[in-house]
């Protein structure tokens, strides 16, 4: 049994992970006499490394879910890393939870800086064990507008199953990795129980599918052809996204005024980076837990969309 701390622990993905950890009943905090699980919530000052370190005393593993785009100069996460080391914690996972390479993903630029920061921490010898949890995109998003996870809210992507719409990149058919958030949470729980050393690159590959297959599955489970928009890399590289539609809502971490610009920027980044392999994540944790059965994309989406208008 080890003590685990989650920074940004009230976020959607963090709460999925908390539930997966509590279901094991192997880590602090233990269950109470009446069988209910206790989670301690602390308000901390991420600008004060000393107080952060005090809050982390006795903690074995720190998982960060800090919103990178809301952390100017990555100060909060850098201070968290420093405090983790001062407190003597063994393991750390930065706020990744997406793709592998960060090229063309301006919204994820802070993740690259944190990766470099962690590399420098260990450049003269192992100081902190860490992994970059990378599950690709959440398969749950292809169920939008229906919520299939307990906490993670629906998020419409460029593969709109409800509207029977999709997008392809001319002369490219890049691979995307889709993993349910439930599978991610289960793998994180397995990783915390794992006695060996964490791999630095923590790929979690639920499903590897090219864009053409995503659309093919969509047309099959939705019972009809999709309207397809074609984009080309040259347009994407100069910041142009020629789509006949855009999602009505974005991620809840952005307000409505930011949403339209952020969504377009995100789509351009995702599509352009996909041609460079950013969303074809590795299977490092699949190899560590070969008996784990991941949710399969076609069966999952068939169940989600069966009988839906």
TrEMBL record:
Instruction: Tell me which Pfam families the record gives.
Output: NmrA
Q: Which residues form the NmrA-like domain?
A: 3-237
Please give the InterPro entries that the UniProt record associates with this protein. Answer: NAD(P)-bd_dom_sf, NmrA-like, NmrA/Isoflavone_reductase-like
Q: Please give the superkingdom of this protein's source.
A: Eukaryota
List the keywords (alphabetical). Answer: NADP, Oxidoreductase
- Record's keyword annotation contains Transport: no
Keyword field contains Membrane: no
What family is it from?
Belongs to the NmrA-type oxidoreductase family. Isoflavone reductase subfamily.
Q: Which PANTHER family match?
A: NMRA-LIKE DOMAIN-CONTAINING PROTEIN, NMRA-LIKE FAMILY PROTEIN
What protein name applies here?
NmrA-like domain-containing protein
Q: Which organism is it from?
A: Lithohypha guttulata
Recite the lineage of the species.
Eukaryota, Fungi, Dikarya, Ascomycota, Pezizomycotina
């Amino acid at each position: 049994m080890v003590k685990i701390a989650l920074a940004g622990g009230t976020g959607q993905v963090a709460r999925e992970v908390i539930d997966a950890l509590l279901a094991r009943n192997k880590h602090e905090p233990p269950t109470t006499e009446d069988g209910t699980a206790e989670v301690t919530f602390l308000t901390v000052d991420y600008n004060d490394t000393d107080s952060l370190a005090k809050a982390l005393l006795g903690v074995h593993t720190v998982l960060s879910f800090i919103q990178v785009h809301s952390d100017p100069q990555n100060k909060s996460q850098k201070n968290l890393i420093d405090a983790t080391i001062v407190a003597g914690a063994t393991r750390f996972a930065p706020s990744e939870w997406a793709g592998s390479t960060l090229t063309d993903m301006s919204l994820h630029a802070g993740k690259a800086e944190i990766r470099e920061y962690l590399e420098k921490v260990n450049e003269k010898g192992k100081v902190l064990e860490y992994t970059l949890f990378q599950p690709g995109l959440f398969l749950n998003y292809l169920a939008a507008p229906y919520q299939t996870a307990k906490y993670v809210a629906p998020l419409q992507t460029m593969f709109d199953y409800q509207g029977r719409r999709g997008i392809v990149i001319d002369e490219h058919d890049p691979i995307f990795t889709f993993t349910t958030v439930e599978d991610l949470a289960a793998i994180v729980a397995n990783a915390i129980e794992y006695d060996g050393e964490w791999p630095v690159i923590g790929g979690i590959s639920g499903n590897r599918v090219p864009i053409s297959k995503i659309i093919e599955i969509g047309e099959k489970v939705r019972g009809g052809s999709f309207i397809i928009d074609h984009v080309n890399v040259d347009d994407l590289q100069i910041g142009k996204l020629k789509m006949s539609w855009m999602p009505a809502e974005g991620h809840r971490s952005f307000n409505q005024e930011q949403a339209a610009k952020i969504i377009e920027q995100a789509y351009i980044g995702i599509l352009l980076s996909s041609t460079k392999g950013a969303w074809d994540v590795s299977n490092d944790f699949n190899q560590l837990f070969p008996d784990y059965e991941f949710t399969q994309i076609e069966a999952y989406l068939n169940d989600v969309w069966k009988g839906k208008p």
